[in-house]
Design a protein that fits this description.
InterPro entries: DNA-bd_dom_put_sf, HTH_17, SinI_DNA-bd. Pfam families: HTH_17 (PF12728). With about 130 residues, the protein is of the alpha+beta class. It is built from five helices and six strands; from the N terminus they run E-H-H-E-E-H-E-H-E-E-H. The strands form two sheets. The chain has a three-stranded antiparallel sheet.
Length: about 130
């Protein structure tokens, strides 16, 4: 029998992890405690979510990307980071972008974590800014 973690269930249902934990603690979502974590059976999740019996869980894919830009001055790095962060307004939940600038080497690293389309959109923006 397949089991899910609280984090996996939250992702599948589009809920916050704390919400799923509350459902488990309230007894609305059956779960088994293994050590310090809960495990939710696939059938119990399907029943809770109202999915037809045997319905496959929603597929989910994520991407992790690191973009490294060489020879970029601080002023250019500020512009790129501001433009990228500005473009994230209204971005899907779960998209995470971080910047690390090494002034000595004039090197910018951009870490992008999230869904495929949202991450691709960020990478397209970075590409356009670097080509300018």
């Amino acid at each position: 029998m397949e089991h899910y973690t609280v984090e996996q269930v939250a992702d599948l249902l589009g809920l916050h992890v704390k919400t799923v934990r509350n459902y488990v603690r309230d007894g609305r979502l059956p779960a088994v405690r293994i050590g310090r974590q809960y495990r939710i059976a696939k059938g119990d999740l399907a029943e809770f979510a109202g999915w037809p019996a045997g319905a496959p869980a929603r597929r989910h894919a994520e991407v992790s990307s690191v973009v490294q830009i060489e020879g970029i001055a601080r002023s250019e790095m500020d512009r790129v980071s501001t433009m990228v962060l500005g473009s994230l307004a209204g971005a899907p939940h779960g998209l995470h972008v971080e910047f690390a600038y090494d002034e000595e080497r004039a090197r910018l690293k951009i870490v992008v974590l999230g869904g495929l389309e949202a991450s691709a959109q960020v990478l397209r923006i970075v590409d356009a800014l670097v080509r300018e």
